């Protein structure tokens, strides 16, 4: 009998997982936006390190605005480093919005980015 319910859910296409709460949706959207920003920064690190040493970055995200199956998350990426040529400290902050589309019950997939 214990195998019957999962099989029935699978055949009917019904999820056995509980519905995602609004708080979980918020956290998931924020995490997806933060992860996407960090991933892009990791890819660009090689270029940054050609011009700057001691490169660090900080990603801050605000609350997600969720409308149906889409969401947007405002955030800011702050880069810091030391110019290799001059030895001077450099810093830049770049605000923007990450756009997402629902992927599954609690998941989000990044669909775009717009710098503010």
What features would you highlight for this structure?
single chain; 116 residues; alpha+beta; Nuclear Transport Factor 2, Chain: A; four-stranded antiparallel sheet; 2 helices; 4 strands; 34% helix; disordered N terminus
Structural overview:
By secondary structure, this protein is an alpha+beta fold. The chain has a single domain (18-115), classed as Nuclear Transport Factor 2, Chain: A (Roll). It has two helices and four strands. A four-stranded antiparallel beta sheet has the order 1-2-3-4, covered by helices on one side. A hairpin with a 3-residue loop joins β3 and β4. The longest helix is centred in the first third of the chain and has 30 residues, at 22-51.
Structural class: alpha+beta
Biggest beta-sheet profile:
4 strands, antiparallel
Span from first to last CA? 56 Å
Shape: elongated
- Mean of pLDDT: 86
CATH architecture: Roll
Assembly type of the chains comes to single chain
The amount of beta strand, in percent, is over 45%
Uncertain residue segments: 1-17
Approximately how much helix is present in the residues? 25-40%
Characterize this entry briefly:
The protein has two helices and four strands.
Question: How is this fold's topology laid out?
Answer:
Blueprint lengths: L3 H9 L9 H30 E16 L2 E14 L5 E15 L3 E9 L1
Antiparallel strand pairs: 1-2, 2-3, 3-4
């Amino acid at each position: 009998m214990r195998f019957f319910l999962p099989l029935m859910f699978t055949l009917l296409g019904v999820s056995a997982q509980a519905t995602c709460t609004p708080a979980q949706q918020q956290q998931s959207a924020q995490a997806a936006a933060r992860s996407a920003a960090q991933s892009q920064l990791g890819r660009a690190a090689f270029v940054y390190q050609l011009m700057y040493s001691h490169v660090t970055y900080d990603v801050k995200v605000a609350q997600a605005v969720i409308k149906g199956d889409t969401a947007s998350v405002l955030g800011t990426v702050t880069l810091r480093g030391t110019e290799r040529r001059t030895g001077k400290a450099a810093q830049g902050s770049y605000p923007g919005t990450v756009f997402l589309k629902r992927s599954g019950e609690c998941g989000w997939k990044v669909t775009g980015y717009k710098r503010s």
